[in-house]
Amino acid sequence: QSALSQPASVSGSLGQSITISCTGTSSDVGSYDLVSWYQQLPGKAPKLMIYDVSKRPSGVSNRFSGSKSGNTASLTISGLQAEDEGDYYCSSYAGTYVLFGGGTTLTVL
Amino acid sequence: QVQLVESGGGVVQPGRSLRLSCAASGFTFSSYGMHWVRQAPGKGLEWVSVIWYDGRKNYYADSVKGRFTISRDNSKNTLYLKMERRPPEDTAVYYCVKQDTMTLDYWGQGTLVTVSS
Fold this sequence. Notes:
The complex is a heterodimer. Chain A is mostly beta strands.
């Protein structure tokens, strides 16, 4: 049950696009199209932003998109806004358990 | 709308057992799997446990296996987590999370458990 690997931090300017990677193994990310992404704002609970690799829940901006290639999933945020600043976590269902990434702090410059 | 309200946290001594509760509303509780996920202060998310919609099966992270017990009472729309033999590393905010198909879609606001003698 090893954690998924994410960069500790990323940054981008207002209006730009950024991508956060999430690397697992052939036993988790590579085996299932069950990658989710969560946004956590300071002092708040995580919020689901992407599920099943690339699907957006109702109400989530289409500026958020997800993809996967092999053992690596990615979250792209386009048209960065100040309110996007926070922590982002990926997760993957792996049979009988769930793995999370270590989290990536997004700073909007 | 979906609401998940955790309770039962606080400052607890390492040797004492503790039971967290999560009151669910806004959806048919008995139809969904439920999880506990925790977050140590300043750290990332860590999955703890899952229980099937009917309570027949449950699974645990290696870090809590044998010490924590997840359960549910579908007649009361309530999820539980019993914690025993807690080292200081169990200090965290514990979130109750609803599962839809294979996605953790709704999270409670969390309850803070501080293990300290």
